[in-house]
User: Which sequence fits this backbone?
């Protein structure tokens, strides 16, 4: 054993630590980490807005892969720091734990400190150029992998275009002050990961809703897509957006904003005909997808106010009691807390942990709602009728779950008869394929590796749980078979430790019907077993549309666009076979294309943005037809570009 002594201890100076272990600072070096770099820069501009100095942000994805973020805030300081003898701009971009957000004199509340800072973006970029406008002068400095050029240069604004290294960096705003950060993520760290316009758009949309004074422009010069995001209605427009696919129970969205104990509590909500709750929570513009004390306080305050009002008016009839679950059904809500010292829990820092915030938010919501219902008794009556209907459905659902437990033995009984299980019982190795119909199921059963692959054929299309209550959903035989095979149970009874398979793979035909079945299954998982998605257990198997052969040369093709290219490569006399469904593929073909771990294409289902996911499910699977029709009309021309 080698000697372990002090000489072996390394101290990584400056930004070297960030480049050595980037995952410690941005979570990962895949697409999620790549997008995090953009969020860090944008969050700084948002902090300027919160301080009252910025109302416009422009984000551009350049064809070269470069990102530019420009704002019209005060501009990063460029004067010499009295203690360190270097320009403020250089310190901010090169020193860990530097910035003006610690003493709360410059920024009262910030989102940037939740993250890791723009200096980490600098460290993980092959090149970064910072441009600061101060009146008629433009200051700029270039960095390579976090190392500064050593010279902060400046030029008259009219001469900006004459500087060769700035030719590709276009200043779009006319305001005298502002900051522009241009960077290229280092491929040595992020590989070939690419920016997703939709992922960035979703995050920018959230920020625009949360900050109604800011207009955010996003442009993707790779494909010409762009959007201007400006929501003067703030959270009320956010709630309208999230609940777009459902009918409203109370017409007007209820909104409140209060200062309490050096914090600002802001929320908006509306009741809909949805059978689930949609609650998006944020702290200092940061999405807390796991909720936390502010979300718990909001729910508790709303429940207490509605329960007390209903009891005082003797409105609780026909049900044993009203629970928090009843109050939450059909709720579409957004809560945003701005506070000085947020404390986050968990590895992903997506759950607020400040214990005092629960009581603060509960008190604000409870007092506001009691006053609101006293002032608008007609609206209060409408809401309480909705809650009572949920209570009746809950009692029916409880009976349904008990029935399901007895009939399907959810908690440890026999498996579905149609399930062809695997011999291994190690969840780290096993996987289950969910396939449509007996024909595809037969092919999959013959193609699979029985050691670790199970197959569950599903008869017909699974019920759309977005429109059904729990009683109806849990009475559905296909859903019962699926729950039994998984072993986890669902909703509040879900226990992911009991999951029988490490991967749940949805394998459907590569056509419109197959896409519909896949969406129905995904809706079920999102509403009944969301943890399986957040833990990365759900996958899609990409199945081919065509088989192209010429002599001994064979290719499987997944899109019509790809078919044109492959056909041209193969030349004349190539034989093209169109698969109408998985049942038409022989077992060896199905194994090679969709089931062999070495050659198949699996797409992992993730939840990068909760509000965008909730909105998409409400549009595609909700009861309103018009938003769905509008979505199809607006996106039909891009259907070949949409990633599964």
Assistant:
């Amino acid at each position: 054993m080698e000697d372990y002594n002090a000489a072996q201890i390394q101290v990584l100076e400056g930004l070297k630590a960030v480049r050595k272990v980037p995952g410690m600072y941005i979570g990962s070096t895949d697409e999620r980490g790549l997008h995090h770099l953009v969020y860090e820069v944008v969050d700084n501009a948002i902090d300027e807005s919160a301080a009252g100095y910025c109302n416009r942000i422009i984000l551009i994805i350049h064809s070269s892969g470069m990102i530019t973020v420009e704002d019209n805030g005060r501009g990063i300081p460029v004067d010499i720091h009295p203690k360190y003898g270097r320009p403020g701009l250089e310190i901010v971009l090169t020193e860990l734990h530097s910035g003006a957000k610690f003493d709360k004199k410059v920024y009262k509340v910030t989102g940037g400190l939740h993250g890791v800072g723009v200096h980490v973006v600098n460290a993980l970029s092959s090149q970064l150029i910072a441009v600061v406008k101060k009146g008629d002068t433009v200051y700029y400095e270039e960095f390579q992998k976090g190392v500064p050029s050593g010279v902060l240069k400046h030029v008259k604004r009219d001469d900006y275009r004459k500087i060769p290294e700035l030719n590709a960096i276009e200043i779009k705003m006319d305001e005298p002050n502002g900051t522009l950060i241009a960077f290229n993520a280092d491929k040595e760290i992020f590989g070939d990961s690419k920016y997703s316009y939709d992922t960035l758009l979703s995050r920018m949309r959230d920020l625009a809703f949360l900050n109604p004074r800011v207009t955010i422009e996003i442009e993707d010069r790779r494909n010409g897509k762009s959007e201007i995001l400006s929501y003067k209605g703030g959270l009320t427009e956010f709630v309208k957006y999230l609940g777009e696919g459902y009918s409203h129970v109370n017409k007007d969205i209820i909104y409140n904003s209060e200062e309490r104990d050096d914090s600002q509590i802001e929320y908006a909500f509306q009741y809909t005909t949805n059978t689930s709750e949609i609650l998006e929570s944020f702290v200092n513009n940061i999405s807390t997808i796991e909720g936390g004390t502010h979300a718990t306080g909001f729910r508790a305050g709303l429940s207490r106010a509605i329960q007390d009002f209903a009891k005082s008016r003797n409105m609780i009839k026909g049900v044993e009691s009203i629970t928090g679950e009843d109050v939450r059904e059909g709720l579409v809500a957004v809560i945003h807390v701005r506070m000085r010292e947020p404390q986050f829990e968990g590895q992903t820092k997506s759950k607020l942990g400040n214990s005092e915030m629960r009581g603060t938010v509960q008190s604000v919501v409870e007092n506001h709602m009691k006053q609101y219902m006293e002032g608008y008794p007609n609206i209060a009556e409408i809401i309480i009728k909705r809650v009572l209907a949920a209570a009746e459905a809950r009692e029916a659902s409880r009976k349904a779950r008990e029935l399901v437990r007895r009939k399907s033995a959810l908690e440890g009984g026999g498996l579905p008869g149609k399930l062809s299980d695997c011999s291994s019982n190690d969840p780290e190795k096993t996987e289950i394929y969910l396939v449509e119909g007996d024909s595809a199921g037969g092919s999959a059963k013959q193609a699979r590796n029985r050691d670790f692959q199970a197959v569950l054929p599903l008869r017909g299309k699974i019920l759309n749980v977005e429109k059904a209550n729990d009683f109806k959903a849990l009475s559905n035989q296909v859903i019962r078979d699926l729950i039994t095979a998984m072993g986890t149970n669902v909703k509040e009874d879900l226990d992911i430790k009991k999951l029988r398979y490490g991967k749940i793979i949805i394998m459907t035909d590569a056509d419109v019907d197959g896409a519909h079945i896949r969406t129905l299954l995904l809706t079920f998982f999102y509403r009944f077993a969301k943890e399986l998605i957040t833990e990365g257990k759900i996958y899609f198997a990409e199945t081919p549309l065509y088989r192209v052969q010429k002599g001994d040369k064979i290719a499987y093709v997944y899109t019509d666009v790809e078919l044109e290219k492959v056909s041209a490569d193969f030349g004349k006399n190539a034989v093209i076979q169109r698969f109408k469904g998985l049942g038409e593929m022989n077992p060896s073909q199905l194994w090679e294309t969709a089931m062999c771990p070495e050659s198949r294409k699996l797409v992992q289902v993730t939840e990068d943005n909760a509000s965008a996911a909730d909105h998409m499910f409400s549009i595609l699977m909700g009861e309103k037809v018009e938003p769905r029709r509008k979505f199809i009309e607006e996106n039909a021309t891009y259907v070949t570009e949409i990633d599964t």
Summary: The longest helix spans residues 377-408. Confidence is low (pLDDT under 50) at residues 4-12, 100-104, 408-412, 639-644. The chain has 21 helices and 24 strands.
